[in-house]
């Protein structure tokens, strides 16, 4: 390249010298002051011309070099490896890279390698997954309910992916109900997506019915961006798509849902090989770029593959090696057999960015250098479970008291969502604040796996940290069995004077609270005139369920004590007391879940019993 340019320069110089060669000197006429042109002047002109040509050649070489460098950088960028195995130390798990590929529109995308696709499929479904489970996860889109009353809700038609839908639903409600100041700024997007202030007597269903499709879609996309960046440690996201949906199909303006449904008619994913053939992923470090991509892909996420695509996106954003490191038993599939339910690890990943298997705070020491992992940081939306009311686990304060009053609710086989319309339900009164302080110290000494009891040695540490001075007879009674149960300890504190560190309340009003909660179940059920249909000639509609609950938290340990303590003051008529009594108490498994958060709560509602299955 350089030799050719030098040769071109020499030729140019020769031609130039020939063209500009000085003419033969003329003889001067007598009296004419002119003479011959000096040779020195001719040489000066030639040297000047040579320098100009050399400068032009140098500029040409610099322009060519700059163009070459830009081309190389572009080439390097296009083949840059996208590591989806996490950013841990070298040697911590196998690092698998993605192969280069471009989509039809020219945007950079990558396909999973065969090894990575098989690892991903095995991690999600295991090696012996049934066709029924695969069908459940391949036939669930992320779609809003067409019913006006539940229009803010995502509809579930198949069992299994409810854990994914419920977690997304919780974040969608966050953006529809509240306006966090630290929301990421997206171009051409208002940072305030919240609803207007809700009056106490207003029903949430009436408010949600006024939501525009655009506002719901923006809330959904923002929720997906937040979840994926949470999984990606706020550094990057990996968004998964299907290569058959890229290009013209994905950008189809006219009836995109129908176009995509037709494209997916013959698609089935039964193995890692099938996944490798159809999956394409995009990596972003910019929130605005990720927002735009997810917004573009909304028709794909509404398709029957939507829930699975989002789960894969979350796993790849976290990094498969990191996901396995988060788990206590990485040999088990994330989708549980035999019914294909989303595991607690999936739910925790979407809520906290960490695929831990447990719901308590921090780590639990099992002895012998063995630990099991729980939730390590505060969360935006929380989690409650029926299993805690059955003493199978203990939800920690991080999940139980999230930043916003929204909780995914878990039962033995399903996930739903519980929420409030304002943040006041999270405010602690004097009794709750003291209880939280003592309970946090108690749980820190609990090595039973959330069983609610601690050793005598740990109990003395709790008393010291919380400045509780128990009378000797009460202390001896609690320690007589060799371990201390939380419920017995709390009963003693309720009768212990505040000066001794207890929470005794002579007025009986220190802990009283009354507020409203709403429960959303995304399972589409047959509804006729607002109630579940069982038979009849009317045409039922398929829609989710939204139930309003009035929650009362009495000031005593049990509702029975509260009711027994309500008596007419002297000189007042009995009917004035009747008015102050709460409505008849109703019970359902959901109430047991609510009591794990407000452990003296009683609930009532109108219409059908709220279902968590």
Automatic annotation (TrEMBL):
Record-linked InterPro entries: EF-hand-dom_pair, MINDY-3/4_CD, MINY3/4, UIM_dom
Entries under SMART domains matching the protein: DUF4205 (SM01174)
Annotated GO MF terms: cysteine-type deubiquitinase activity
EC class (word): hydrolase
Keywords: Ubl conjugation pathway
Any GO BP annotation: proteolysis
Biased composition (Basic and acidic residues): 21-30
Domain Deubiquitinating enzyme MINDY-3/4 conserved: 121-495
Gene3D superfamilies in UniProt: EF-hand
Reaction(s) this enzyme catalyzes, per UniProt: Thiol-dependent hydrolysis of ester, thioester, amide, peptide and isopeptide bonds formed by the C-terminal Gly of ubiquitin (a 76-residue protein attached to proteins as an intracellular targeting signal)
Region: Disordered, residue numbers: 1-48, 562-582
EC number(s) from the headed UniProt entry: 3.4.19.12
Job description of the protein: Hydrolase that can remove 'Lys-48'-linked conjugated ubiquitin from proteins.
Family statement drawn from the similarity comment of this UniProt entry: Belongs to the MINDY deubiquitinase family. FAM188 subfamily.
Protein's name in the database: ubiquitinyl hydrolase 1
Organism: Forsythia ovata
